[in-house]
Design a protein that fits this description.
By secondary structure, this protein is an alpha+beta fold. It is built from nine helices and seven strands; from the N terminus they run H-E-E-H-E-E-H-E-H-E-E-H-H-H-H-H. The chain is about 45% helix and about 10% strand. It is globular, with a radius of gyration of 22 Å.
Length: about 350
Amino acid sequence: MENIAKDFLKQIGVKVREIDEESAEVELGGWGLNESVVDFEKKDLNPALWKDKKLKKEVTDQIWKAIDSVLDDVKLKREDVTSIFLEGSNLTYYYNKYTDIDIHLYIEGIDKNEEKKNEVGLAINEFNKKEVFIKDTHNNLELYLMGEEQYKRLSGPRYDLVKDEWLANPEKIDVPSEMYKAAVEIALTFARDLDLAVGEIKRDIVEYIALEKEIEDMLNVDVSQFKTARSLKLDEIKADLEALATKEQLIKDMRRKAYSEEYVPQEETLYYIKAGETDRSYTLYNMIFKILQRFGYIDPLKMLKYNIYKKALENKDFDSKSEYYLKQIIKVLGLFTQINLQDEDLP
């Protein structure tokens, strides 16, 4: 990124906030920038959520309220849900005060009912956009619908919300410092590539606007060559957007691989370090993803892909609505370097 001080603050975990909703012309779609990265070991579980390794009643009540609201939207009842698990960093000793609470719903047989699966998935997405926090905390509720394959390959600590008991207990994991160093160094190679790609689309948009201005100001001059150049520049912007969407997919696939049954770390790789065998969060691939997320790259990339790229692709209207889409891209590009701090974020 362009500002070393901002990079450093993000790297050490200072909270990065979304741009002011009133000033954003982009629908943020729930992409928060406060997500946890792989954090260092704490003495106890998150005291805001747990007491004597039991989920606090007020936390349980609020989670059930969130689940019931989603089920009501899709005309389902609690008994229709086969399993409800809590997973993620808040079930370990490696969390921070902004770590999401990951709540996974599994409905047996839903994979065979595509219409219902999509309906539930949409309701969950709409809930997640609201960014519901446990009272008096910064811990955001994130709901997920699990498919059968995902249900089969669950790993790491899990808490059964229905039975109010641990299915897999939290463990203190010996993650060698070399693992952190390796993950950071590899993440930085991705970050440098993304910096170049983001810079390229910024420059192409500036050039496009400059050509547009030149054409508007010309009188009694053949502007056909300028219009051709402008059209070619718009094609470059589309290619830039395509490249960023591809990079987002590559990074996402890398994280998915960390949790896949096929992924087995190989000792012959230069950066093989033994970790993540009991908790896939500590596989190298997932740590790289989380570090990029902390650096502030993942969420803007998601917004570019899902709120702009895929929308324009589905509607096939990028050329006819180029001014609209360029405004949306410019808003999202600002998130790659923007950071807002409050007193509470500083030591």
